[in-house]
Fold:
Amino acid sequence: MTVMSKNPAAAPAVQSGGKGAISIRNVTKIYDPGGVNVVAVDNCSLEIAPGEICMIVGPSGCGKTTLLNAIAGFHSITSGTIHLDGELLCGPDKPKAEQGADRIVVFQNGALFPWKTIRDNVAYGPIVQGRLSPVEARGKADHMLAEAGLHDVGDKYPGEVSSGMARRAEIVRALINDPRVLLLDEPYRAMDALTKSIMHEALLEMYDRTKVTIFFITHDLEESIFLGDRVVVMTTRPAQVKKIVDVRIPRPRNYKVLSSNEFRVLFAEAKDAVHEEAIKAFEAGERELA
Amino acid sequence: MSGDGTSSVAIQRGGGAPARPRAPTGIAYFQYVLNKKLRSPTPYLMALGIGGWILIYWLFSEVWNLPRFEKMPGPVAVISDWFSRKPFQGTSIFTETYYVHIWVSVRRIMIAFAIATAIGVPLGLIMGWSRRFKDYAFPILETLRPIPILAWVPLAILMFKGLETPVIFLATLASLFVTVLNTMLGVESIDEAYFRAAGCLGSKPRQVFWHVVIPGSLPFIFTGLQISMGVAWFSLVAAEMVSGDYGLGYLILSSYVNSVTVPMVIGMLTLGFVGWITSALVRMAGNQMMQWRTRALALEGR
Ligand SMILES: Nc1ncnc2c1ncn2[C@@H]1O[C@H](COP(=O)(O)OP(=O)(O)O)[C@@H](O)[C@H]1O
Ligand SMILES: [Mg+2]
Structure:
């Protein structure tokens, strides 16, 4: 297997001097269900700059979620290290990172608490961390919801709003904690193209305000180039970095860029890499378990 | 079930529950629900269905005297006795003992249900929450649970003095198993993503328990409480028939022993009615505590 990333630390494209640098070095993750070793991630290295939007694409079941879970602290890694702003998250002596509000995950199927109103969902983090009083936290939640264009939904329960609104509110729930990294795992997967484009605009707007580092897993190449500073194409399982596509389209971006020449060139470049891996995955008969 | 769900919401709203913003409240809401109900065909069909069954029952028992029905008191006999000031067979809404029987049973149910809920819910929550505690406690539960509640009767009588305590004990025991099990399943049914989200947002374990485990398992808990209410009545009546001095179960059996069949049927129908009310109360409490669910289901038109 020819893999570019065995030489670690490809230079990140964005340098903004802010917080939220992730460095993944030689990370391997082996699942062991019933004694059968499943190598999900193999000696994978990737440097993500502070404030970068790093898009991860790759065949399903290749190990993207595994990598995200390792960063978030949902499960352990087998070897390698992951650092956040130079602090060790997990490594040889500490295989599982602690969960913390500096790295917040937005889930594929949405995980707003259905039993809390949207306002209380957003206010939840600052309250449980003891950073704000409940009254202050709710006030700030209202403010941030309004800023994100979500007026009048504070009193509603997640089950009462559209999935697009819920997903936006979930991102607000993350951002209210001022995280260093936002981890998104195919958040717009089930959405139609129109809703998606609205979600993209909303996300970029929130990004422009916060400049938080974003680690974004997706299947959608167009989405990855439209949103990302870099598109990281992963190999089929076990995951390694196959190719990194630098997206130097200036921000703020709007939908015009989708029809630009530059976009088409980048798309083709990424598509080639993804296609190659998709064929490999298909031939390996990997079942879709994402 | 769905029809009952809506009507219980209507009662809550009509009964002066705190007004929610932008939802029609108070009388306006009540009128709206009533209007909708009357326009929908279900109430008519329900009335027609019940009327039809009573008609058949009346024909079988009082008009045609079909075999097997000849000993059975017909609807006219039951209703005329039930609402009579001087009932032929001694039990009607004007006799004091009728209410004593009802009150005794209801009181026993309330005590049993309260104890079973107060023990069962926390126990189930902890069992669902802590793997280790479940490993300790679950085998015992699973061994005792399949024992039919009637098999406990002699032991209960030996263990407890008097007539009251064994009866309550049996109803409590039956409820307890149901409540513990459903609560535990409720915790286990919570999507892992909510725990992860809570962890990401910086919750301590105690906060996860309070903000995720408890609300997340409420739907299962309340389903469990409804079933638990049912089995509490079931075992209560059985226990009252075996050992008792008052109560609806005792009324039914003693009527049978004394060959007065009308009070027997009155007792049965009263049980049905009181049982329905208690389970409606549990459902209303559930809807009240799970506004998030009630409202989402209402949006789906259920
Ligand atoms: N808990 C687990 N136990 C065993 N194998 C797992 C587990 N989670 C994921 N896997 C396997 O690891 C591989 C990568 O999974 P995942 O990271 O979810 O892929 P994706 O890139 O689609 O997000 C898959 O082959 C999957 O079957
Ligand atoms: Mg995945």
